Amino acid sequence: MDKVEVAVPEDVGATILTIMRTGGSEGPLHGRFFTVDGTAQAGSDFESINGNVSFENGEMSQTISVPIKDDALKEDMENFMVELLVEDDPSMRSIAFVNIIDNDNNPGVFEFRESQVSVREGSARVSLTIIRTDGTDGSVSLRLRTVDGSARLGEDYTLRSKVISFSDGEREKTVDIDIIDDNIREGPEHFKIGLFDPTNGAILGPNSIFAVTILDDDGEFS
Q: Domain Calx-beta spans what residues (predicted)?
């Protein structure tokens, strides 16, 4: 018995399965196929089909189509089977496991609420708000990372990288980055903070880079 496994999105319309003839192609060959419920149910998740397949002498492959139903339910991956039996030898059978991937979960779009801020060197910290829009389904993590400009990590601010985790349904988080107050007279300094690598199908919005300007508080720069 041969087994194969395929995965299709719920909105695919139909999954196309190819029946291959192996071990030679001489003479005709006949069989029948039918769907079998698994966690996916005929009528609600896919259309039940059954039928006959006939290979002519020299014919090597044929295809069958199973319609997939797209619903608005949030659900885990579901599966059903398509079984193929050879007419002259019922012991010869193949099973295709079809996994239906739900398309109704929307993990959302992640970005900063603002795109820039100016802070005094003695302000202690800068607070950034990360917002989640266009869906809040499932848990998502993403990485926040700073990038030096004229302001330098360890000299002007702290925090190089951090993983930010959102729970299912969570819409925003605030992250604090400490600003280092020194006694050096200097002009405005800059660094950037970016969002990277969202998980579980989430995406980044256009406002995924945040610019910080640190204004000196040690007197006039000359």
A: 3-85, 96-196
